């Protein structure tokens, strides 16, 4: 599928690298605009209405997220491009939005573009981008929402409502406080990375729990959660786990 | 010889008991004293060992901090990104130039982070190498000058890894957000036999404006370089008795100029 794209990066060099790589590696992408000026980027995207936007995060005066915020209806697929931004990348991942790091790896770029191309048909970009903007305004980790692709489409779930994630054969079953569990085709490792916060603890290679839902700890090495699930704590994690619980 | 049998014992029984009682008392007192003395000695030795341990721990921490402070991931990745550009452009000379400069700087970072002190000469080399690399990235957007008064003893040692984060702040907070080209000057001067002054001046957007930008961006956390600089200065005060005076001012507050000025006064330990 052919995709129209706009590239935004304050650095001339980065823009040139990306353009060159796209032309060589992603023939389905047609570059219809590019700019080094974040303020101009807002106008450019609004006027050209591209299907895909490559957006740098760290830019002078106005960063990539602010550019996104200024666009009235951001319904394009996004691929963030960043040299290093721990907090930014975390926010992007929470919303299942694409990103690549500089220096750009060819394989990463090809993969990000192919995922974005597939997503265009689903028309979920506006929802994800809106969620990202909303999350950026929320300080508390538990109050943010994460986007989980499931069989039915995208699920937007509040982190606070997740009781635990259970890994099974490469899939993950996520249990919630008020709603039915959902199945994700991502592995437990994906959720472990997504929920890297002191409130989430991987008690076992297939159990990631929200420690706010611990009801009790049984001496034989189990935790009981508020939904009455009794889950094992790996032997080698028990001491660390108990220390952590005591410190809370 | 009955007389002999009658010889009075030299010590009466009473005296004997008295004396042996006294001896016992003295023995007990000696043992007690010895015990008290020994436990005191152990306590003092322990304290000494503890303070040595915590001192060593702090030194290790300091090294780690220094290393971390230099390896700003932003800087590393941006440099590599620029090298990728020259490779893509098939500009062999510039790619190699950039790569070897980068490698030289990393080498210096590793070397100096293990040392507590470096000579002013080494510091100047490090800073000029760092700025040369930033210049390769920012090109015409950045110019700089490093000045050292003739009176400065360049062999003298100063704490390592204090100046670089300050200069980095000037680049990424001052110059980066400025629309027109920016300039950074670094001036070394000798105040007395045992004290130095380093002034880092830029004509960027100024600390007030850059703080505003930092607040509205999502990563509300204080910048990498500012954070490590704070930690580094704190630890230095604790360990080496180095007296470090650090002042930062927005130039617009006292002149028509814009930008930030940082003054660092380093006093050698006695």
Can you offer a commentary on this structure?
The complex is a heterodimer of chains A (248) and B (270). By secondary structure, chain A is of the alpha/beta class. Chain A is built from eight helices and 15 strands. Chain A has helices at 12-25, 38-48, 64-70, 86-94, 106-122, 125-136, 188-194, 238-247; strands at residues 3-8, 29-35, 52-56, 77-82, 98-101, 145-150, 153-158, 162-168, 171-176, 182-184, 200-204, 207-210, 214-218, 222-225, 230-232. In chain A, helix 3 (64-70) links the parallel strand 3 (52-56) and strand 4 (77-82). Chain B is α+β, with helices and mostly antiparallel strands. Chain B is 60% helix and 18% strand. Chain B has helices at residues 2-6, 13-70, 73-88, 92-114, 120-138, 163-175, 207-216, 224-240; strands at residues 117-119, 142-148, 157-159, 182-192, 195-202, 243-250, 260-267. In chain B, a hairpin with a 2-residue loop joins strand 4 (182-192) and strand 5. Classes of the chains: A alpha/beta (248), B alpha+beta (270). At the A-B interface, helix 1 and helix 4 of A face helix 3 of B.
Looking at this protein, list some descriptive labels.
heterodimer; A: 248 residues; alpha/beta; 5-stranded parallel sheet; B: 270 residues; alpha+beta; 5-stranded mixed sheet; two-stranded antiparallel sheet
């Amino acid at each position: 599928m052919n995709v129209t794209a706009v590239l935004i990066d304050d650095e001339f060099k980065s823009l040139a690298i990306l353009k060159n790589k796209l032309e060589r590696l992603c023939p389905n992408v047609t570059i219809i605009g590019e700019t080094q000026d974040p303020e101009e980027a807002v106008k450019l995207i609004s006027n050209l209405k591209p299907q895909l936007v490559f957006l740098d995060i760290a830019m002078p005066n106005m960063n990539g997220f602010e550019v996104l915020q200024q666009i009235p209806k951001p319904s394009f697929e996004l691929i963030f491009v960043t040299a290093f931004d721990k907090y930014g990348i975390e926010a992007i991942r929470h919303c299942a939005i694409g990103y690549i790091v500089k220096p750009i790896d060819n394989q990463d770029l090809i993969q990000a573009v192919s995922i974005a191309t597939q997503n265009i048909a689903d028309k979920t970009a506006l929802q994800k981008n809106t969620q990202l903007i909303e999350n950026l305004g929320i300080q508390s980790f538990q109050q943010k929402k994460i986007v989980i692709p499931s069989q039915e489409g995208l699920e937007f779930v509040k982190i606070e409502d997740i009781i635990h994630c259970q890994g099974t054969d490469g899939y993950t079953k996520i249990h919630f406080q008020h709603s039915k569990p959902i199945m994700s085709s991502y592995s437990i490792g994906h959720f472990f990375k997504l929920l890297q916060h002191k409130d989430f603890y991987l008690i076992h290679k297939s159990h990631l729990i929200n420690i706010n839902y611990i009801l009790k700890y049984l001496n034989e090495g189990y935790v009981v959660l508020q939904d009455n699930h009794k889950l094992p704590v790996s032997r080698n994690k028990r001491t660390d786990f108990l220390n952590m619980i005591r410190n809370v | 010889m009955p007389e002999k049998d009658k010889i009075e014992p030299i010590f009466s029984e009473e005296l004997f008991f008295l004396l042996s009682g006294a001896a016992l008392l003295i023995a007990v007192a000696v043992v007690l004293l010895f015990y008290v003395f020994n436990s005191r000695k152990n306590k003092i030795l322990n304290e000494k060992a503890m303070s040595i341990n915590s001192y060593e721990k702090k030194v290790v921490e300091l090294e780690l901090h220094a290393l971390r402070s230099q390896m700003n991931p932003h800087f590393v990745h941006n440099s590599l990104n620029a090298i990728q550009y020259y490779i893509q452009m098939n500009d062999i000379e510039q790619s190699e130039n950039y790569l070897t400069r980068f490698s030289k700087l990393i080498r210096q970072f590793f070397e100096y982070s293990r040392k507590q002190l470096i000579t002013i000469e080494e510091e100047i080399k490090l800073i000029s190498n760092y700025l040369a690399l930033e210049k390769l990235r920012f090109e015409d957007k950045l110019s700089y000058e490093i000045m050292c008064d003739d009176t400065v003893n360049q062999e003298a040692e100063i704490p390592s890894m204090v100046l670089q984060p300050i200069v980095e702040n000037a680049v990424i907070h001052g110059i980066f957000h400025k629309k027109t080209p920016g300039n950074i000057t670094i001036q070394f001067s000798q105040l007395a036999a045992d004290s130095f002054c380093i002034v880092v001046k830029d004509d960027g957007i100024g600390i007030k404006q850059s703080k505003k930008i930092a607040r509205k961006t999502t990563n509300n956390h204080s910048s990498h370089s500012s954070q490590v600089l704070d930690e580094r200065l704190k630890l230095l005060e604790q360990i080496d008795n180095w007296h470090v005076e650090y002042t930062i001012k927005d130039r617009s507050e006292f002149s028509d100029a814009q930008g930030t000025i940082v003054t660092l006064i380093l006093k050698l330990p006695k």
